[in-house]
Amino acid sequence: SQTIHQWPATLVQPVGSPLSLECTVEGTSNPNLYWYRQAAGRGLQLLFYSVGIGQISSEVPQNLSASRPQDRQFILSSKKLLLSDSGFYLCAWEGTSSYEQYFGPGTRLTVT
Amino acid sequence: AQSVTQLGSHVSVSEGALVLLRCNYSSSVPPYLFWYVQYPNQGLQLLLKYTSAATLVKGINGFEAEFKKSETSFHLTKPSAHMSDAAEYFCAVRQTSYDKVIFGPGTSLSVIP
After folding, report:
1. Per-residue pLDDT tens for A87-106?
2. Cβ contact (<8 Å) for A104 and B42?
3. Is the CB of B105 less than 8 angstroms away from the CB of A49?
């Protein structure tokens, strides 16, 4: 069966520090991968999606970036965090022949 | 363009009462529709999905939803609420497999003992 992992689970970082969040998927090949953010009490905001290694599409221009160095690995990064980057970050995958997405457990990021 | 609306950002029901969470969508063609549940500090979990088969879809935890094309609705119901149903519920729509999933703003369900 398929499993999706995210780490770390929680992170507290000062403003201006770098960020790296990692997402990995097991049990499937060539998944589409997604990064979402949830601000406190808000809905889901799509940040990035990827249909293959090295293929990244950005939905919202901001100081975040994403990379997909391996088929089942998706990384979210920032060179300098802002207070507004605080939130709950969710990674999701979908199969190429399915329509629904499956979410990881999330990373709670607090920028201080 | 696709969009999803969820009437009521907060819904409260008594334990044992009917749960009804509303979802309306806009789409130029019959879309794929989903309901997800999110418990505090967790990721979203798929409850059920409609992909143009039966209009009444049964999901996990006793939930079901009915696709009504004429009303462009996909409301989520459960006959009897349980305390463990307290969570955030998201409706989502996807027009084709090539389109992105559009999520609604979510409805927070509280269950009163």
Report:
1. 999 999 997 667 889 999 99
2. no
3. no
